[in-house]
Amino acid sequence: MTDPFIRLDRVSKAFGGVTVVDDLDLTIGRGEFVSLLGPSGSGKTTILMMLAGFESPTAGTVSLDGARIDRLPPHRRNMGVVFQSYALFPHRTVAENVAFPLRMRGMARPEVAGRVARALDMVQLGAFADRKPAQLSGGQQQRVALARALVFEPAVVLMDEPLGALDKQLREQMQLDIRDIHRRLGLTIVFVTHDQGEALTMSDRVAVFNKGRIEQIATPREIYDHPRTRFVAEFLGETN
Ligand code: ADP
């Protein structure tokens, strides 16, 4: 890992007295691709929500590039978010869909146009700006959703099971596309998935979650060759 860029220090989160993230330490380097892998309910999405600013930790601190961010609202955190349900506006063009978050913040039209063009170039959809979502393939629609997350030119992109709804072939194509975008743009990506194969093929490091704690965090190779706990070994051995 390079210098710590994202840092969670002793972070806990409880909902109604039930602890779902338990005294967790996690550091992620600048430009790293880290997957949060684990069964449903293990706390992965809650971590992402605390990074994005949609949830606050019950205890502990979250920092980005050396500065505390856990009290900042989502739009001050320099992070883009992509969810599984990435609904695009069907009656708006690709460019209008990507412009939407900028327009919401009241950004002036010339600046919006420049940023939208750059974001569409990042996902190689520059030629599709004037199309409607229905005129695109599933993978292209997914890339529009990614462009919408990139339009603020964030340092970090948070992805929550972004490929969960796709069929196998498209899923594999998007895995390659996301890796390619990660490399080309030097983004830091935190990627939530319950799919072992996906985490192991895409990531620089994988954090394996169990009940709000990290059982092991290591490179895919290390995790695959040397699972540190029985839980990790058994979880990796399961097939989806
Ligand atoms: P994962 O992403 O690993 O599936 P989550 O972080 O979504 O896990 O959820 C962890 C636990 O926290 C689950 O038991 C879930 O029901 C609970 N939880 C998540 N968000 C809330 C919430 N807003 N209110 C109450 N419980 C929640």
From TrEMBL:
The reaction(s) this protein catalyses: ATP + H2O + polyamine-[polyamine-binding protein]Side 1 = ADP + phosphate + polyamineSide 2 + [polyamine-binding protein]Side 1
GO cellular component: ATP-binding cassette (ABC) transporter complex
Keywords for the protein's UniProt record, in alphabetical order: ATP-binding, Cell membrane, Membrane, Nucleotide-binding, Translocase, Transport
EC number(s) on file: 7.6.2.11
Boundaries of every ABC transporter domain copy: 6-236
Superkingdom of origin: Bacteria
Gene Ontology MF, one: ATP binding
Family that this chain belongs to: Belongs to the ABC transporter superfamily. Spermidine/putrescine importer (TC 3.A.1.11.1) family.
Assembly and binders: The complex is composed of two ATP-binding proteins (PotA), two transmembrane proteins (PotB and PotC) and a solute-binding protein (PotD).
Function: Part of the ABC transporter complex PotABCD involved in spermidine/putrescine import. Responsible for energy coupling to the transport system.
Name listed for the protein in its UniProt record: Spermidine/putrescine import ATP-binding protein PotA
Residues of the full protein shown: 1 to 240 of 355
